[in-house]
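Hi L.,

You mentioned the student needs an example of a multi-chain input paired with its predicted structure. This one should do, with 860 residues in total across all chains.
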Amino acid sequence: MNPILRVAGLSVRLGGSHILQGVTFDVAPAGVTALLGRNGAGKTTTLRAILGEVPARGTVEYDGRAVLGRATHRLVRDGLAYVPEDRCVFAGLTVAENLRLAERVPDPDYALVHELFPELKARAAQRAGTLSGGQQQMVAIARVLLNPNRLLLVDEPTKGLAPAVVSAVATVLGRVAARVPVLLVEQNLAVVRKLADDAVVIEAGRVAWRGPADELLGDNETTRSLLGVGRH
Amino acid sequence: MKRFVPPALLLLAAVAPFSTLAVPGLFEGPLNSPGTLQLLAVCLVFGALALGYDLLFGRAGLLSFGHALYIAAGAYGVDILVSHYGWSLWAAAPVAVLGAATLAALLGSVALRTSGIAFSMVTLAFAQVGFILVNRDPGGLTGGEEGLPMVTAGLPSALVGVTNTVNLYWLALAVLVVIVLVVHTIDRAPLGRTLIGLRDDERRIAVVGLSPYRVKLLAFVVAGALAALGGVVHALVVGGASPHVASSDLTLALIVMAVLGGAGTRWGALAGGLLYAYLDQRLARLGGDLPGPLSEPLFLLGTLFILAVYFVPGGLAGLRTRWEPLRRAVRRRQVADSPT
Amino acid sequence: MSTVILLTLTGLGLAALYFLIASGLSLVFGLAGVLNFAHGLFLSAGAYATWWAAPHVGLPLAVVLGIVAAAATGALVELVLIRPLYARHTEQVLVTVGLSLAGVALLQSVWGADARVFLRPAWASQVTGILGANVPDDRFLLIGAAVLVLVALLAFLRWTRYGLIIRAGVENRAMVRALGIDVRNAFTLVFAIGGALAGLAGILGGMYFTSISPGQGASLLIFAFIVVVIGGLGSITGSAVAAAGVGLLQQFVNYYGTAGAGDVSVVVLLAAVLLLRPAGVAGKAVTA
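Structure written out for the whole complex:
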């Protein structure tokens, strides 16, 4: 099966520092590919470069087409959806407005959203800024689920959430990944273990490890040296 | 070689008034005629003002829209002290400059609580108060919309009268040199590097442990003092102060000068100021002969400025660096073509 | 008492002009991040278009033409001058500075530097007695127009798709793009709306002052800037509240204090707001 996304030699310079220095990896057309690495390794920058939010060099092929330099909104309309770090819900808009803004098709899938997040239906008129972190994350994920997508880029969906909420979010992501491939940036290795099929580790702007997620997480030594964490 | 160019140009500028050379087209009279010297003196003053402004704009990255306030503080300060209170110029000028610096410290401490575009708006608002005040003629001090002509009794006789225009020219040149020295000294000092650091990335400087607020305030006060110094000379050269020196149009013109010349570069703003002031005065005189909007100097300068922002991002100073690769390419071609 | 009523209504009339200019500035800044010095040019475009057309087509149609001309000027400036400098905010400000200089000069060369007499509806020259005060009717014209615009703007922002995009874009442009929305169309739209409102302000200002001049836009613009900063960048209700505060303060201080004190007090108010609430009354961060 051809990968849904191929990244080759991706380089980003921002304000004089070389943040990405030739990142190369593929994302399989099904399941979850985890993008791992320490803080500041360049994971978020990789996602933003793929989306065209930061100027980058190299090659990014989405569904067989080179996309670097294309406008972000066009990529998203082509089914490359993005759940950013820190949720980025619109705090001054209501939950319903946040969702309405995200509609890209005539028949948005509210049935799925309300099945996964019944809470959002009850809170439709509430301002998103007054939601809890977990609820905001639900809005952020719901926004992309309204539309048919062919690849999700999800950046640290469990960051700063309470343990119970983390597992709820992970369950939802698992259900989503059954239909759409996901490129997931995640620090919580328990979540990675549960969801990820493949793993890519970035270190100082370069890919330091690629392979099956089980293999990486099964090897405590490698995990510790690459990610600075491991099972105790 | 390059380092001798500025002193050579300075020497040339200093001896220019001894020349009776006539440059038809560029100037109306010979170089040493009072009219030409006056025009050149105004150019020098604006070169100095633009460079002083670039300390804020190009170096510290502070887009102040209220610089005219400090120029006006210098011009009106010295004019009021000399014309109304009969002070001598040598007493009035330092008081005016110090007063402007104090004003800059006061207002800067408020304005610098904001950043980015809000800072621009706040400085603009403060300067607008100055403009309104000088127009309202409080206590008959500023002469209102007519402005306040300088009473010459308090001035040294060497600066009075058409025949002494050359001395005003030299005075303007001297002040220009002073401002160049101050700005270039700051460029080389730790303060200058900190300012540029602030412009590029404020967080980085905060990490180093300096207070960005204090550094910016210091730059704001120094720039205010330099503006007032320029304002003093402007009042002397044109024989008084008028509301135009307090108007936001003047600040906008300074921005145009800095950008035209190349903001943040060593000589860019100075060159831009000279060029702008020259064009402004010459176009105003030629204006009547040109058709339609071309008769308005500001139409031409504004259009020129917009084109410069698009097509010459580095200003005049940027042109040189753009030429450099081309020249090198040509030289390489010549080397390659020559038989070996 | 009658003086207070007259001053209040005059202050609110002035506030109406400030609001019409400031709301457009605020939207343009909030969404597109552009501090628009050419906004005064939009105002003049509306005023001069109406002044020029009124003798030919009558005042009501001329007003419509003026607003359309100002909106077109705004959209054109965004498309031709601002858009190519995408995300380079300082350059964008510089271009609007150049445009404001060149624009005023262009108006001067075409229609002269002197003020031109501006037509107004006959009823606007009459007075209405309210609690003993003889209030000129042009105040009601200004206040009524501003209230209508405020209600219409809020409804537009609240109930339409583009309103939703604009509100979201003011919060986070990049995220709007990441939802697959071409936010640049919204930029053009806010420039057109800002232009139309500024044009309306120019026309109403012409009726109120009974004259227009090339520099009029610039002098009103500075108070509009102050209103925008006090009200919070990107907030329409903030602009409305701040405009009313600024207009009233200016009128009352000018009447009870010395000449010019009202203008100074407005700037003192600005300084006080910045010291106490650096985020402006609407609470949105006043940084770029």
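You could point out the following to them. The beta strands of chain A are 5-14, 17-27, 32-36, 57-62, 65-66, 80-83, 151-155, 182-185, 196-203, 206-212. The CA atoms of residues 14 and 84 of chain A lie 19 Å apart.

Best wishes,
N.
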